Amino acid sequence: MLDQFVNIFSQASTKGILIGVVDILLVYYVLYRILLLIKGTKAVQILVGLLLVVVLYFASEQEYFDLQTLNWLLDKFIASFVVILVIIFQEDIRRGLSQVGLSSRFTGLSRIAEAHFLEEIVKAAAILSERRLGALIVIKREASLDDYEGIRIDAEVSKELLVSLFIPFKQSPTHDGAVVVANGRIAAAGCFLPLTTNARIDRSLGTRHRAALGMSETTDAVILVVSEETGIISVAFKEELTRRLSTDELRDLLQKLFSEKEMQRQAMKQPGFLLRRLRVPRKRKKHAPTGS
């Protein structure tokens, strides 16, 4: 086999070799991004099951097994394979497409401005927690949040405004919904978010926590939750819910999440970014959030 590869490359022109290498790298990168997208989600288990079906299909076609009935059944299934994939993975496909070609999360914001507005969110969370005011704040990173519309605000982020949006009073259109923060400004309030479809989550979680997890399943946003009953501060990110955060822990977590994204954005500008991303990542121990 190695000799065949050597013969192919020896007969090909320099241009052909370069095109072939680029082609392989692009395919590798696309597959890598797809696997990275579905990593840790229910799509992984479903994908494994579908791959087993494909293996059974090719096995049933072999004369050695002579599984005619199974082959006929799987043949009908494979004919609709693409449609089935789209239906099963519609949420993952939507999430992936929403992240393609997007700009940085805080266009034009300096690090000082970013730190200021994150600090305002932390201070607002502390006040909301102390007063037992339920809150749901979605902080945009890269994925677009244009689909989650509410009452347009477009105001500077301040702890006073954030707290006022969640104060319950009669005919208030904002306190039961979510506040969306994008590009360093409060973009909208009173937004309704999708609830999580994960049946394995703690049943004691309320609607706000379920909405936060649901949002983290479809976007890369950071979602902050303050419990109305207990005042507990939680953060949902990439389908994980970290609960019982103190003010200092919340500040550290937000700074970590957004500084990591900033480092990734800067790394994309450096030479050799694609080759570094294509390297097999080392396994890291993952901290599982506790609580319900």
Write up this protein.
This protein is α+β, with helices and mostly antiparallel strands. It has 2 domains: 2-98, no CATH class; 111-278, DNA integrity scanning protein, DisA, N-terminal domain (YojJ-like (1), CATH 3.40.1700.10. Helices cover 51% and strands 13% of the residues. The chain contains 11 helices and 7 strands. Strands 2-4-3-1-5-6-7 form a 7-stranded mixed sheet, with helices on both faces. β3 and β4 form a beta hairpin. The chain is elongated and about 70 Å long. The protein starts with a helix and ends in a 14-residue tail after the last helix. Mean pLDDT is 78; it is low at 102-108 and 266-292.
For this structure, the CATH topology of the largest domain is YojJ-like (1
Helix fraction by DSSP (H/I, runs of at least 4):
40-55%
The overall strand count is 7
Tell me which CATH architecture of the largest domain applies here: 3-Layer(aba) Sandwich
> How many domain modules?
2
At the fourth CATH level, what is the homologous superfamily of the largest domain?
Answer: DNA integrity scanning protein, DisA, N-terminal domain
Q: Secondary-structure element order, as H and E? A: HHHHHHHEEHEEHEEEHH
**Global Rg:** 24 Å
Task: Put the structure in a nutshell.
This protein is of the alpha+beta class and 292 residues long. The chain is 51% helix and 13% strand. The protein has helices at residues 2-11, 14-38, 42-60, 68-79, 81-88, 90-98, 111-131, 159-165, 207-218, 247-267, 273-278; strands spanning 135-139, 151-156, 178-182, 185-191, 222-226, 233-237, 240-245.
